[in-house]
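Researcher: I've been going back and forth with a colleague about how 3-isopropylmalate dehydratase large subunit might be arranged in three dimensions. Neither of us has a model we trust, so I'd like an independent prediction. The organism is Neptunitalea chrysea, in case that matters for your notes. Sequence below.
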Amino acid sequence: MKKTLFDKVWDSHVVDKVPNGPQVLYIDKHLIHEVTSPQAFNELEQRNIPLFRPEQIVATADHNVPTENQHLPIKDALSKNQVEQLTKNCEKHGVTLYGLGHKYQGIVHVMAPELGITQPGMTMVCGDSHTSTHGAFGTIAFGIGTSQVAQVFASQCLLLQKPKSLRVNVNGKLAKGVLPKDVILYIISKIGTNAGTGYFCEYAGNVFKEMSMEGRMTVCNMSIEMGARGGMIAPDETTFEYVKGKEFAPQGEEFDKKVAYWKTLPTDEGAVFDKEYSFDAEDIAPMVTYGTNPGMGIKISANIPADITDASFEKSLKYMGFEKGESLLDKAVNYVFIGSCTNSRIEDFRIVADYIKGKQKADNVNALIVPGSQQVAKQIKKEGLTEVFEAAGFKIRQPGCSACLGMNEDKVPSGEYCVSTSNRNFEGRQGPGARTILASPLMAAATAVNGKITDITKQLN
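Model: Here is an independent structure prediction for 3-isopropylmalate dehydratase large subunit. You can compare it with whatever you and your colleague have in mind.
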């Protein structure tokens, strides 16, 4: 029988099945952070259950950590407590922790791939919805709730219904200035935020094949925003080259053996998907969102739809302070955030630095650059990007989730617009009353320099 990439990885991890019911899926890697793990550790202790396989768990501090003065004691009481609890729990149970100050600390979905912890053909989970990021490696990766975190702690398995399969094909040549973030925002704007509900999505076509691993991670990261359980891209030479030589990747002969197996994972010719979409790359342009979910996106040259009468649509526009039929071009913006598990890798910052080199941010703009990990921060410095950002008036922070989720100190003030490279634009996502406009790193950089939303395609040769 012809199998999809998803089928191959899922089926090889099924430990047991309930007749006409869920399956017991083995989990290769469990990533944890300071926000969703304390309750799960407590549950284990209350029930006197030991951690089954601590060596398959990796922890870091990212969500609620400050991005300034990380060498000093944390001031915020909640953040301080969460980070201390994570440290104690990891020490007590023998779990590897990359806490504040560690050279490998960073956003969990940036840190694990760059260290070679993420590898093709794995099953990976984390108490965070954007775990789908790791699917860029041909990995089944998805977010889980706190009770499921405890389940994996206790058994290294999960009881799950197998999702249906979905494939999104994008073929053709992308226009200049169109980045992977634009591709995924375009897809979600076309199929909606519920199209993937109940499905695991595979991205196929030459556009994804030609993307770097960083670009693929950006796409898979936002699979959850179209309702999918996760997203995957078949591993290929680009994947193998990225993984090779990483700190925790297989080495030498072992690596060659793994590659031989990874090459068997791509979807078989003729395999059938439960649902399929196809798009032309030529139709994709730089994107911006105008509403309060990631599906409310338009091309930079387009206007907000004028023919929708839905109550939630009206409510969304009211929150954002926009009108039907309005263009977002030249809309003044005072906050720009370049970071998050969607766009805080070195490739993203190279793109930003390339655009802003020799330019100055607009006086009205507060522009934040937040690397996704200590390793990315080190690379920024090594490549001389620090000087570029500082000369342009951008503020560089230390690694963490930062202004993506308004959980730490990097919040956007109420009523202010923020062009953000993050993944969600829900009401209050970046702080109470904050208004988030999602965009690519290039669009965000252009907004910071011009002080308003700009059509980047008009500035490219």
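Researcher: What would you highlight for our discussion?
Model: I'd start with this: The longest strand covers residues 164-171. After that, consider the following. The chain is about 30% helix and 15% strand.
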